[in-house]
Amino acid sequence: MNHFLLLLLYTLGTSAVLADPNKEEARPSEQPRLSVDSKPSEEPNGQKSEPCSKGCSCIQDDYSLELNVYCSTRNFTQVPSDIPLSTRSLWLDGNLFTNLPAAAFEKLSNLEFLNLQSSLLVSLDGHVFRGLNSLAHLHLERNNIRSLPGIVFQGTPNLASLSLNNNQLSRIDDKLFAGLSHMWLLNLGWNSLSVLPETGFQDLHGLRELVLAGNRLAYLQPQLFQGLSELKELDLTGNYLKVIKANVFLKLPKLQKLYLAQNQIVTVAPRAFVGMKSLRWLDLSKNRLSVLHDETFLGLHSLHVLRLSNNSIGSLRPGTFRDLQYLEELCLCHNQIRALGVRVFEGLGHLEVLNLENNRLQEARMGTFMGLNHLAVIKLTGSCFHSLPDQVFKGLSKLHSIHLDRSCLTKVSAQSFGGLTGLRRLFLQHNNISVLERQSFVELQGLQQLDLRFNRLTSISSHTFYGLKNLDYLLLSGNLLRNLPAEALLPLQHLSWLDLSENRMEFILNATIYILPRLRYLNLKDNVLINLPASIPDTLDQLWLSGNNWKCDCSAKPFRDFILQKPQVVPLQVEMLGEGEEPHTLVTIYNNITCASPLSVFGLDLRNIGSEHFRDC
Ligand SMILES: *[C@@H]1O[C@H](CO)[C@@H](O)[C@H](O)[C@H]1NC(C)=O
Ligand SMILES: *[C@@H]1O[C@H](CO)[C@@H](O)[C@H](O)[C@H]1NC(C)=O
Ligand SMILES: *[C@@H]1O[C@H](CO)[C@@H](O)[C@H](O)[C@H]1NC(C)=O
Ligand SMILES: *[C@@H]1O[C@H](CO)[C@@H](O)[C@H](O)[C@H]1NC(C)=O
Ligand SMILES: *[C@@H]1O[C@H](CO)[C@@H](O)[C@H](O)[C@H]1NC(C)=O
């Protein structure tokens, strides 16, 4: 009984959220479904309650004394006639109504919350909500409603939130929302609307959030959003818009978030967003933009996030973003920008994340990123720089991550990363780097992670890693290294993770392992190593050795004794969460120490060779 009450109090707590329009994520479309059959036998405080509707559960709130009636998923085909008159919240979702007649709730004049979602509704009588003077929250989403009588909300003048999403509305009567000046949330998403009545929203003076996503809107009339002076969030994602004209968003001074992704927008008129003083978030991704006019973003002085990914933008003009002095995140990924000239990012003094992934960028210049004084992350993955311009990142003193993987690089020159003393992570994997010039990384004193996997490095010189005194992770997997001289690792006194798998290493010297005082993880898988280490440092807690040509003679005995003592350091296998398609499947990673010689133990795992094999050692 106590648990039951707690559960209900908890769910009531979530419905109370609905009343607060200031609460950011308050979108009341996903109400929890209750499927409790039992009725509370007694009021908690001993009061006598009105009889509950047959087949429903009634709960009176301990504090507010409001009555909530739960009739979800009861297979009702009609609204029960015995619902207590004092009911404040009524849950009728998941029933089988098809249509509702006039005055279906007439006597429930105290009702504030009514949930009719997922109830197979196709049509509503124009007077169905007659008498619901107090109704504030109405859920009609996930039905099959094709049209609504123009007068249907005349009986509910105090509506604050209305969810009509996921129906089949193809048109809306001009007067449908007339007089609903208390409404703050209107969700019309995922219907089949191709046109909206031009003055249909004009009475919604209090509206804060309007969802029109997932419809077929191809055109927005100039008057459509006028009067929505309180609107904070407008979602037009996934429509058929082709052009954004300059007069549509003119009178939306409080709008903070505008979603225009997944349309077919080819053109955004110059000055289209002028006057949107409060806009913080603008999403134009997955459209067909090929050109940005240099006045496109004029006036967006509060913009924090601008998403332009998955368009066909071919180049950027200097000054395009000059008004966006508070922009923190700019995403231009998956476009067709080949070259970045100087001053293209001018004015973006607060930018923290610049995403230019997958543009096949070939050209950038020394001044390209100038002025990005707060830039922390730059993503250039999928570019095609053959060589990186010298000092291209110069002056970016706050930069802490550079993503240059899959970027056709063939060498790293001594000037590429000059001056980046605060850089922490440098991603250079999946290039064709065969040359690391002497002291290429010398100024990267703060670098913690260097990823050079899958390149064409054949050797590392003793000067390569100069300066990397804080490096923690060094990933060299998938190169052509034959050896790694201890001197090359000498600067890396902080290194704890070294991945040398999938190289051509023939030997690994005792000194190479011991020169790194903090080494915890060493991966030597898939090389051509023969001799097992004679001893390994105490710091090491994982060593990977499979896929080599181990010689299991007397020289291997000390090592064998070691792993039989400390099997956790050289685990036979480890279960890991897989990456890729099925992210939650466990994959087994083996760490076999398969002997290649002598012949008598060929193919056996060192751990499984009996001690008689080492008897004469
Ligand atoms: C509703 O009808 C379905 C199908 O006939 C049935 O499985 C389910 O138990 C019924 N639910 C209630 C609450 O009667
Ligand atoms: C952009 O398009 C690419 C390739 O078509 C796709 O893989 C990627 O998921 C898309 N990204 C976004 C953010 O839509
Ligand atoms: C590396 O170079 C080879 C041939 O020179 C080319 O086929 C391959 O695509 C290049 N790989 C990358 C990641 O640039
Ligand atoms: C490897 O080097 C360490 C530290 O210099 C030393 O203690 C250990 O005996 C060496 N092991 C072999 C087999 O040379
Ligand atoms: C590693 O050993 C396991 C058994 O422990 C075996 O199933 C697996 O085939 C071996 N893998 C290789 C590459 O030898």
Automatic annotation (TrEMBL):
Chain ranges of the LRRNT domain: 51-89
rRNA-binding keyword on record: no
Compartments (UniProt record): Secreted, Extracellular space
Signal peptide region: 1-19
Keywords: Cell adhesion, Disulfide bond, Glycoprotein, Leucine-rich repeat, Repeat, Secreted, Signal
Stored InterPro entries: Leu-rich_rpt, Leu-rich_rpt_typical-subtyp, LRR_dom_sf, LRR_TM_domain-containing, LRRNT
PROSITE patterns the UniProt entry points to: LRR (PS51450)
GO CC annotation: extracellular region; plasma membrane
Chain intervals for the UniProt region annotation (Disordered): 21-53
Chief place where the protein resides: secreted
Regions crossing the membrane: none
Composition bias, Basic and acidic residues: 21-30
One GO term (biological process): cell adhesion
Pfam families assigned to the protein according to its UniProt record, in alphabetical order: LRR_1 (PF00560), LRR_8 (PF13855)
Assembly notes: Forms a ternary complex with IGF1 and IGFBP3.
Name assigned to this protein: Insulin-like growth factor-binding protein complex acid labile subunit
Originating species: Sinocyclocheilus rhinocerous
This protein's encoding gene: LOC107719182
